[in-house]
Amino acid sequence: MTARLDRRDLAPLWLLSPAGLVLAVVTLAPIGFLVFTSFTDYNQRTLFTGVYTFVGADQYVTLLRSGAFWASLVRTVLFTAAMVAGSVLIGMGVSHLSTRLGRAWRYTVTVVLIVAWAMPNVASSLVWNWLFQPGYGVANWMLAQLRIFGDTTSLNWAQDPALAYVSIWLLIVWQAVPFIALTLYAAETQVPHEYKEAARLDGASEFAVYRIVTLTFLRPTLLLVTILSVIWDYNVFNQIWLISRGGPGDATSTLGVYTYKTAFVGFQVGHGAAVSVVTTLLLLALTAVYIRNLLRAGEDL
Amino acid sequence: MKNAVAAVFCLVWLFPVYWMVNTALKPRPEVMTPTPHFWPHQPTLDNFTAAVTQPQFLTDLRNSVVVVAATVLASIVLGIFAAAALSRFRFPGRRTILVVILAVQMLPATAMLIPLFTMFNSLDLLGTYLALILAYVATVLPFSIWVMRGFFAAIPAEVEEAAQIDGAGTWRILVSVLFPLVAPGVIATGIFAFIAAWNDYLIAYTFMPDESRYTLPVWLASFTNPHTGTDFGAQMAASVLFSVPVIVFFLLIQRNLVAGMSAGAVKG
How many beta-carbon contacts under 8 Å exist across A and B? Predict the structure, then answer.
């Protein structure tokens, strides 16, 4: 494509080395260091004295025997599945709705999506705490007006395992839908009209047209969006931390929260590093799928 | 029918943002009422005054500005050269570098947090701006390279060839031909970098234990006081002030948003 410049030119080397050096120090070295730390007993004492011992695979053995780790892995998988399913389904709905709207409504929906998307997650987590505040929160008031659940005014969402999940799920889905809806919308406008017309002439219902024609064209985009959502939702930390701190007890302690608590609350840094390595390896499998798909989708590397 | 669905969707999705603004504009008695007021009956800016006159606000704002500005600058300067190399040249190892850059984006936050924390601890850097800037560059630089690379790749090869025929050398072509052409991309990338660093809570919360070194997100989250109870009006006003620059930037770069997001620039 390009490369008209002399092949033996050393320019790329010079151009890459500043960023390369910085990334080697702040990204690659830390990854190596993380793996190294996971084979030591690095702990609170080490932070002050710098002394630690090499413990081989002990951290991993303890980890695989720890009920708390497995529980939080299962939680992470189930919660990620619930968040991805919710946001992708709603995102598909909003995208499809947008294709059928007039210009003014479509524009309004787009702006609303971008505003929700743009909210920094620290701010939206605080807004969530306020919406679901026991006593004065507007969510409890609205629920009470429904007169289905009785007097819900003093419902404490963060202190109930199921309710804590519900409120975090709502927050993540609220923030995730815009990207998904806008990306899918961009793809949906590319679906050739002739195919839809042909299906309609054959007497297909609108739902059948969507399922058979549109979804077929959307499949690659849908796959990318789903994989990205899985990666992001699997990594969610701020929202859970700011809403429930992983609680009550360990009820909402996903792998990210579990790692953070181990490494930075209990200061068992070595053990936290081992959890982090395992978490990363699980994620790496997904990332590999994502990058392969990106390459296949024609992204020119 | 479809317009009704759209209207309901907009109302529901905008509600949390509306509620933040609504609360920010209410006097305290209206904030704390068993029956919520759906609009401020006696609108006031007192909450905004309360937020910005908090003892730590100006210090923490300055911390954020210093760290974010340094991060954006470093990522752009380092990133633009790397992006040029990765898009305008063919050389062995190029694909590997690109794949690594993309994969690094997907790492869980704690995977970077733990080793950077222990490294900075042994170097005695915890609590300093430098620690925070380095950690932000680690998160921001890879996607900056990725996004700018896209802008470089969009420049047709003929532009380069024409400059070459005119006798310009590699550096000359880069600096006076290619760099000006990617200026819009640089701005978009700078905005992405700004948003990522401005929004960070986890790294600042972990690396900067001292209140005088908090950044704005940590300051915002620490509004919760277990003794006096949270002043929700002021907290929502502070959230509005904190979010407005980000929302404005998002609307400015909306055309590049989806591309940047897939590169991991803005996470959920």
Answer: 303
